[in-house]
Amino acid sequence: MFAISTILLNTIITLLGLWLWRTGSIQFRSDIGIFALFDILILILVMDAGMYLLHRIAHIRFIYPFAHRTHHRYDKPRPLTLFVLNPLEALGFGTLWLLVICAYDFSWAGMSIYLGLNVVFGSIGHLGVEPLSDKLLRSNLFNTLTTSTFHAMHHRNEDYNFGFYTSIWDRIFGTLYSENSRSQD
Questions:
Q1: How many angstroms separate the CA atoms of 79 and 127, rounded?
Q2: In the chain, which end has fewer C-beta atoms inside a 10 angstrom radius, N or C?
Q3: CA–CA distance from 144 to each of 24, 138, 147, 160 (Å)?
Q4: Quick check: 52 and 162 in contact, CB under 8 A?
Q5: d(Cα 36, Cα 44) in Å, to the nearest integer?
Q6: Among residues 64, 173, 131, which one has the least CA distance to residue 162?
Q7: Would you write out the chain's pLDDT as a tens digit for each of its 185 residues?
Q8: Cα-to-chain-centroid distance, residue 165
Q9: Predicted TM-score of the model (pTM)
Q10: Distance between CA atoms of 33 and 80, rounded to whole angstroms?
């Protein structure tokens, strides 16, 4: 039921976005090329920061029980658990998205690629298995980008790994899980 409600709420957010576009609050550029690629990078970093912040807020002791506990009922993520969100959480992420695209005129191409990457990262985070080899996981790229292992560790230890696309904000704010974190628990 939560997965269905999340999909319905995402549809409502999409329709609200359509209305905002029709009324001129959201505008998009039609260019492609280097600026569209730059848009993808901006969207990933800005949305990652915003989602990190909302995720941290959702873990505040008095907010957690009614806003985020639903998602953490599953200590081992699976693909469907990507959509198992409390309605407040789904609306929070959707509202963040609308605020970001109201604030800046992104290109259609950059925004479309970002949305595709959003689905890919969400799906990877909830695979329940790690498709990458240990060698790749230790590489600089996958040490910065989130992986299935990264998000699974968050489900096992809720005090760490709040990032969605990257571990940048976890590194900055000291919430990145490491072997040293384990010894502090």
A1: 5
A2: N
A3: 36, 9, 9, 15
A4: yes
A5: 12
A6: 173
A7: 878 998 999 999 999 999 999 999 999 999 999 999 999 999 999 999 999 999 999 999 999 888 888 777 776 777 777 787 888 989 999 999 999 999 999 999 999 999 999 999 888 888 888 888 888 878 888 788 888 888 888 888 889 999 999 999 999 999 999 854 554 44
A8: 6
A9: 0.88
A10: 35
